[in-house]
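Input structure tokens:
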């Protein structure tokens, strides 16, 4: 049984159609919300006017956090790392379209 769901998300003013597993919907929507919030913070704090620049800074921040987690040994860090890698893979898939 295929339990996939087609959704549309908006990141940096662009809409992206996604096909995800139904159980991942909440996580994906939270990830989109986190990206939008981070972009807004970059735009406000650093007077970033270009959405692409704000998105690049979000990607840098995410990658930095991911690398920081890779250095740890705890079970919680492994779970978080797995989730971040999943979100990163989904974003890579969307951005490569």
């Amino acid at each position: 049984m295929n339990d996939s769901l087609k959704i549309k998300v908006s990141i940096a003013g662009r809409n992206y159609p996604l096909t995800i597993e139904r159980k991942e919907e909440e996580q994906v929507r939270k990830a989109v919300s986190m990206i939008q919030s981070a972009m807004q913070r970059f735009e406000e704090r650093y007077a970033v006017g270009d959405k692409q620049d704000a998105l690049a800074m979000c990607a840098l921040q995410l990658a930095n956090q991911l690398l920081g987690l890779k250095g740890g040994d705890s079970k919680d860090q492994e779970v978080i790392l797995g989730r971040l890698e999943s979100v990163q893979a989904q974003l890579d898939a969307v951005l490569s379209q």
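Strands lie at 4-11, 14-21. The mean pLDDT is 83.
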